[in-house]
Structure formats: C-alpha cells, structure tokens
What does this fold into?
Amino acid sequence: MDDRLAERDARLTRFAKRHPQAATDAANALAKVRYLRGEPSERTCTDCLTTAAEWQLVDLSEREGPEFMLYSDDVQAYWAFCSLCALTIEDERRRKLDKIWGR
It folds into this structure.
C-alpha cells in the first residue's frame, strides 16, 4: 500500500507543478469540505469502518477541473475513507470517468 500511496502522491505533485491553478482549486475545494464537515479522521471509513484518513470525491455529477485533479464545490460529493480504501475509490473513479469519456 505504501508504494501505491507514494506513487499517487508523486503524480499529484507533478500535476500540481504543471497545473498550479487546478491544484489550487482542488485544494480550496478540500479545504471547504474540511471546514464544513470536519477532518476525515473524525469519521470512520465509508467502506471498512476504520478511522478515515482523507476525503475522496465520490459523486461525479458536478465535477470540475482537469481529469487528474477533479473537485466539486458540493461538500456532500466527498466521503471519508481510510488510505487503502481511498486508493480503491480513486481506481473506481478512473474507470467511471473512462466510461463517461468513452475510453
């Protein structure tokens, strides 16, 4: 799992350097979620019921931003997940988007 987290974080860092405005928009959306809904660690993971570690965008109906750095202004579109389940959710989100975009 640590390798998958490191790989994801490295991709996000590279993307943020290339697309600073998109990274700022996504960070601001997550800050809004934290402000209105609290820290994810105050909740249990939606899937496995362990302590959550991060918010993940689950509802893609009102998504914004480029493909790799999606965000939403709707704070209810985010659910709390532990790190392992968050990686799984990201993979599922990518598959859903591939269907939406016809890949």
